[in-house]
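Structure tokens please, single chain.
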Amino acid sequence: MDKKELVFGEKNFILLAAAIVVIIVGFVLMAGGQTIEGAGRFDPSIFSFRRITVAPIVTLLGFALVVYAILFKEKE
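Here you go.
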């Protein structure tokens, strides 16, 4: 084995980059819910379907894709 040879192949890095993008999208979907200083009002939009259900699922899929990208081995 040559010292210059990487442990991961090109497809591993592509999958890892895609997983990072999916995780970022999940966190962006979770973002929001700004507060109005001094208004004292409760904003119920923080409990939207997108923030409570969709965003965590997308984020977990991204983390699962990271695991798959690490374990993926190309057939020789």
